[in-house]
Amino acid sequence: MKIRWMLLFVLIACSCRKQMTVDLPDQQHKPVINLLIAKDSLVITQLSYTGTPNLGPNTQPWTREIVKNATVKLYENDVFQEELQLVDLGYNAVYKSTLRAKPGANYHVTAKIPGYPEMEGRDSVPQRVVVGEVSMKEVPSDDRRGRANVSVQLYDRPGVKNYYRIRLYEQISVQPGNIVYNYLQPIPMISTDPFDILFNKKERNEFFTNDALYNGRSPRFNFIAVSELNFRYPLVVEVTTLTYDSYNYLFSAFMASEKNEDVLSEKVIVFNNVHNGFGIVGGMSIDHYYAKK
Question: How far is CA 134 from CA 130, 149, 221, 288, in A?
């Protein structure tokens, strides 16, 4: 009797089976907007598509298809300001504003590409953090590269959640003729923060932190800077104040570059805050300081 019931159940289950077609969205050709809005700077963004474009047999896997026919609009505190103008560089293209972003203001950006829903994203430009002493002291090195202890003090604003990124540079000066050119060359650093368990004792070019452990206080961060040029040029410390969205985007992108190439690590998904597309519209305040010896 039990066998008969089992056979009957199998026949009923088979007779009720229905084939369904699931229409999965195409993730290989979705629009992407990359826009990080810095205080006192022009608003400049680039639009592209996900996936590698079919540009011929020599197309490299990192090649992106740049969008040059979009309409990009900028709103400040929900008031329309202007349509960003296309700057076509041939191999590349960006959309550029004429006004400069203000700290404390909210920005809303829309981008309409023919054949796609209108993309949009919004964020604010944070107030800059007050920075205290920025100093450096060269220390003995066990290789040909110069090393220095770098100290940076921040005065964290109380009562709000704050996010920061710190990077180090050497200000290189070159003089091919009568004109002196200065540019910032990134240099790696090693964190000495005991809570930095992910990257402690490992060189990298960026350090991210939030004020969960020091809200409203004046933390001091210490790094070991590594210079191929043995600090012949001035050391510059870049301190960036971030919003929740820009912090999550930059930190997740940084973690993805660190871990996604490692087959033993769990893959990191890059943060996205754009509706009807991918990418980021995020605010930041960037300041540079010379380290005193």
Answer: 12, 11, 10, 10
